[in-house]
């Protein structure tokens, strides 16, 4: 066992968790970890089924004395968000995750940990070992959840027989989720024109917005965490006002649709005579923005570094277009639920921007627990694109999961939690998207709930998993499985 996980219980769970941290499993690249799951099923003599998308179901028969219990589907996803801090040398397609023990928490060294949703994979594999008596189980390992719930959307429902589902992709112990938002991704693209000009008499600068907390664009969107693209857009527009001669040479920031962007890098050029004015404008902007985020984003840095003057920069109209789009596209909460106090109903995440070749690409992601409001939120992006005269495309979305507060499964989970902890759990809905919404849409009548151990800062290199919470939630899961159908 890795030193970071020494003496963690249950040992079988952490053994599997450590094993999958050594296996590359970025979204869309889950083949190796899927083979690990299948190898474990074969080792245990358990039957498995795989659909055309690559989702895997491993079935464990009922333990003696539990033969009359209904089949329960346990579900989690194999892929992880692969994020690392700027300048960190880590190849997610080859390098194992470096585990670090931090008191009662396990985290990774400068990368995402992948406990979202590796902890679910480890829990299911531990249960498949058969040490805990339960009714019949079907452990569903889905693929490519993080980039748009692809595995769930393309799930072949015939590989499942159970009609009770426990999703293990929640991130707060003591909270039972019974509903979630649906969502849609919006893509804005536009041709841009570069022009060549001599570097003589010019000075180049590299501008970095970095050190933000980032986070999950559903679970943390209400916290008003800094978005590097929003801050970077403000910076560029401030510089253009103070130093009209500034020209943009390159820009890249953000990555995943479901992660609040932590970093943005822009290369610019000015006539050498305006270099001091640009540095001064950056300093003034930095002072203003650090004051705005003081106490909330204390790691925020707005750095400026002199570089060789780029010989190729965006033509004037293209630079204007880029800055206007960054200034116009919204980010954050668009509306709160009128039915559930404190629940974000609708939001949008300005997720990434880049120039590839001669094309500007911008990605934003909209969420809501009402389809009509998803359409409204994505329509905002479509209207901005139309006003700018650029291309807009919306990807196929995924459905919301409507809560059922009268669910027998919820009552069972509540009862067991109360008996184990002496208090009632919290029950509610997530603004984040869960595969439950898609699976329930594909399999009418599926009774569902979602819970999990304490996870913090998912989708960022600060992601960490609580070790004692994981042990408690696994114990709770076993007790719930033993109670279902009793």
Overview features:
26% strand; nine-stranded antiparallel sheet; alpha+beta; Aminopeptidase; 23 strands; 2 domains; 486 residues; six-stranded mixed sheet; Alpha-Beta Plaits; elongated
Tell me the radius of gyration: 24 Å
Give the class from helix and strand content and strand pairing.
alpha+beta
State the separation between the terminal residues, measured CA to CA: 37 Å
Strand content: 25-35%
CATH architecture of the largest domain: 3-Layer(aba) Sandwich
CATH superfamily of the largest domain: Zn peptidases
Number of helices: 11
CATH topological fold name of the largest domain? Aminopeptidase
- The gross shape turns out to be elongated
**Number of beta-strand segments:** 23
Number of domains: 2
Task: List strands and helices in order, with pairings.
Layout: H1 11-21, H2 31-44, E1 47-50, E2 56-60, E3 72-77, E4 99-102, E5 105-108, H3 115-128, E6 137-142, H4 150-153, E7 164-167, E8 175-177, E9 182-191, E10 194-196, E11 202-210, H5 228-242, E12 247-254, E13 264-271, H6 275-293, E14 301-307, E15 312-314, H7 316-328, E16 332-336, E17 344-356, E18 359-368, H8 371-388, E19 391-394, H9 408-421, E20 426-428, H10 435-442, E21 447-450, E22 455-456, E23 464-466, H11 467-483
Parallel strand pairs: 3-6, 3-7, 7-21, 8-20
Antiparallel strand pairs: 1-2, 2-6, 4-5, 5-23, 9-18, 9-19, 10-15, 11-13, 11-14, 12-13, 12-17, 16-17, 17-18, 22-23
Helix pairs in contact: 1-3, 5-6, 5-7, 9-11
């Amino acid at each position: 066992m890795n030193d970071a996980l020494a003496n963690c219980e249950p040992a079988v769970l952490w053994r599997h968790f450590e094993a999958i941290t050594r296996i590359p499993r970025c979204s869309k690249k889950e083949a190796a970890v899927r083979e690990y799951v299948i190898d474990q099923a074969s080792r245990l003599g358990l039957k498995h089924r795989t659909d055309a998308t690559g989702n895997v179901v491993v079935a464990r028969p009922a333990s003696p004395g539990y033969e009359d219990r209904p089949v329960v589907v346990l579900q989690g996803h194999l892929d992880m968000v692969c994020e690392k801090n700027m300048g960190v040398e880590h190849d997610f397609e080859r390098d194992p995750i470096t585990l670090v023990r931090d008191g009662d928490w396990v985290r990774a060294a400068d990368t995402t940990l992948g406990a979202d949703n590796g902890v679910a994979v480890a829990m299911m594999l531990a249960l498949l070992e058969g040490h805990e008596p339960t009714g019949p189980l079907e452990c569903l390992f889905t693929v490519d959840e993080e980039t748009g719930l692809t595995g769930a959307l393309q799930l072949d429902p015939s590989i499942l027989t159970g009609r009770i589902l426990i999703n293990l992709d929640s991130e707060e112990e003591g909270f039972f989720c019974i509903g979630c938002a649906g969502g849609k991704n919006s893509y804005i693209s536009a041709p841009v024109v570069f022009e060549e000009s001599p570097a003589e008499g010019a000075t180049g600068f590299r501008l970095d917005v970095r050190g933000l907390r980032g986070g999950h664009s559903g679970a943390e969107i209400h916290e008003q965490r800094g978005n590097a693209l929003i801050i970077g857009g403000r910076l560029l527009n401030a510089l253009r006002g103070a130093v009209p001669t500034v020209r943009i040479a390159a820009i890249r920031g953000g990555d995943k649709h479901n992660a609040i962007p932590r970093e943005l890098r822009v290369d610019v050029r000015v006539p050498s005579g305006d270099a001091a004015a640009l540095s001064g404008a950056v300093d003034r902007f930095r002072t203003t923005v650090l004051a705005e985020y003081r106490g909330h984003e204390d790691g925020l840095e707005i750095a400026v570094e002199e570089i060789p003057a780029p010989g190729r920069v965006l033509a004037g109209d293209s630079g204007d277009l880029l800055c206007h789009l960054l200034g116009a596209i919204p980010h954050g909460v668009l509306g709160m639920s009128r039915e559930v106090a404190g629940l974000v109903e609708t939001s949008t995440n300005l997720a990434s921007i880049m120039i590839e070749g001669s094309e500007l690409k911008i990605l934003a992601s909209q969420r809501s627990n009402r389809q009509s409001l998803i359409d409204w939120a994505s329509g905002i992006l479509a209207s901005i694109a139309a006003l700018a005269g650029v291309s807009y495309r919306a990807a196929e979305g995924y459905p919301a999961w409507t809560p059922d507060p009268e669910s027998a499964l919820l009552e069972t989970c509540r009862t067991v939690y109360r008996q184990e902890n002496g208090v009632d759990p919290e029950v509610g809905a997530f603004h984040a998207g869960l595969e439950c919404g898609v699976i329930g849409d594909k399999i009418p009548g599926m009774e569902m709930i979602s819970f999990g151990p304490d996870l913090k800062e998912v989708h960022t290199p600060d992601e960490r998993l609580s070790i004692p919470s994981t042990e408690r939630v696994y114990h709770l899961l076993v007790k719930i499985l033993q109670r279902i159908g009793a």
